[in-house]
Specification:
Creatine Amidinohydrolase, about 35% helix
Length: about 425
């Protein structure tokens, strides 16, 4: 778990980047009702968690910067012994300063009285401009309160900044402490996939394999998955975000599992595809080997000095050549890629940033150009081929085959570090594991 000092360092880093005479305001997530009086499990907003480590709802972080001085303030729910009997411990204002390292704290019911005072005289107000319309309206209400007091000497901020842009660039490059957590998320995620492979057998249900995964996650301390687990048997593997997970898996079917554990907010993200009976057919193996070749070649492109689209271009070329070799497409590889014909069977990117969000933040382009890899960036690599069961253009033996293989890679000055390599992905190794 990250320390209060680590989060304070992130706040200090953010303050250094903000212009002088700026106030930054960032809301926590609220609790959400699932139905009637039952709430969804609370998950803190990732930006708020990154800067505060504070995992309670209905809070607000404020940072002020003026000259060489700065201040951090946290608005929180008040201590309430009666409420805490029902819903658990609250840090309160004392905990906000003592346990979380903030300079000052107020209760959240003081926000309309105190926020205009804190904002008074600032030239800029920074907040997430495009995330929460209701919160944006509150910011403008506070600014309006100040504007109405101009004759009494109040001064409202004259310009707004998108706070999310600053935070997202910080989150893109992980610190050693974050990478240690992501290694653990990768390890637990891998254990879940191995458990599912070992439990698979013809006639089992997709949800039974999901249960093996979730059991493994929780047993090792990852209380929640990082996202809804995908367990697709047979043709369901061709549905990219399939989450029904309620069908029987027949003898001879492949199973595509895309699942990852969340550890202290950080995500693992692994996909493996394997035969439920432990043996690839000839057609399944032919498609699988092409996808695996594309994955390995893509990982080889994860080098400092390459831009972050190179690995997708490499993957696309190998997959498209494979589609031609299998008879799925006809024509010149360059022409097929240029026309987008390959997207019939490979319709997504080869990877995405990963961190506090499974599809993590951070721009892929800077000033219109693909950005270069930096040490500490973490990306997935996940090529795939999906041949729909009703695709009459495809040779019959390949119809209904969906294959994706995915790992999480950290960029380093040397070779990339694979956080999820524990799960077998060579076809022979998968078959050997399932025999065991």
């Amino acid at each position: 778990m990250l320390t209060a000092r680590w989060h304070a360092e992130r706040r200090a880093e953010l303050l250094e980047q903000l212009p002088d005479n700026t106030i930054a305001v960032l809301p926590a997530n609220p609790e959400l009702i699932r139905n009637n009086d039952a709430e969804y499990p609370f998950r803190q907003h990732s930006n708020f968690l990154y800067l505060t480590g504070f995992n309670e709802p209905d809070a607000l972080m404020v940072l002020r910067k003026q000259g060489n001085s700065s201040e951090s303030i946290l608005f929180v729910r008040p201590k309430d012994p009666a409420a805490e009997i029902w819903t658990g411990f609250r840090a309160g204002t004392e905990g906000a300063t003592q346990a979380y390292g903030f300079d000052r704290a107020f209760t959240i019911d003081q926000i309309d009285a105190e926020l205009p005072k804190l904002m008074d005289g600032a030239e800029f107000v920074a907040y997430p401009l495009n995330e929460n319309k209701a919160f944006a309206n509150r910011v403008f209400d506070w600014m309006e309160t100040l504007a109405k007091g101009i004759r009494r000497g109040s001064a409202a901020p004259e310009a707004t900044l998108d706070l999310a842009d600053y935070i997202h660039e910080m989150r893109l490059v992980k610190t050693p402490e974050e990478l240690a957590i992501m290694r653990e998320a990768g390890r637990i995620s891998a254990e879940g996939h191995i458990a599912a492979m070992m439990a698979a057998k013809p006639g089992c249900y997709e949800y039974q394999l999901e249960a093996e995964i979730l059991h493994t996650f929780v047993r090792q301390g990852a209380r929640f998955p990082a996202y809804n687990s995908i367990v697709g048997g047979g043709a369901n593997a061709c549905i990219l975000h399939y989450i029904e997970n309620n069908k029987a898996i027949n003898d001879g079917d492949l199973v595509l599992i895309d699942a990852g554990a969340e550890v202290h907010g950080y995500a693992g993200d692994i996909t493996r595809t394997f035969p439920v009976n432990g043996r690839f057919t000839g057609e399944q193996r032919a498609v699988y080997d092409i996808v695996l070749e594309a994955m390995k070649a893509s990982i080889d492109e994860l080098k400092i000095g390459n831009h972050c689209k190179t690995f997708h271009e490499k993957s696309t070329r190998i997959l498209t050549q494979g589609m031609v070799d299998l008879g799925l497409l006809q024509g010149d590889v360059d022409g097929l890629i240029e026309s987008g014909a390959h997207t019939r069977y490979f319709m997504h990117g080869t990877g995405h940033h990963i961190g506090l969000d499974v599809h993590d933040v951070g721009r892929y382009k800077l000033d219109g150009e693909w950005r270069m890899w930096q040490p500490g960036m973490v990306t997935t690599v996940e090529p795939g081929i999906y041949i729909q069961a009703n695709d009459e253009r495809a040779p019959e033996g390949f119809r209904g085959i969906g294959i994706r293989i995915e790992d999480d890679l950290v960029l380093t000055e040397a070779e990339p570090e694979n956080l999820t390599a524990q799960v077998p992905k060579e076809a022979d190794d998968i078959e050997a594991l399932m025999r065991g």
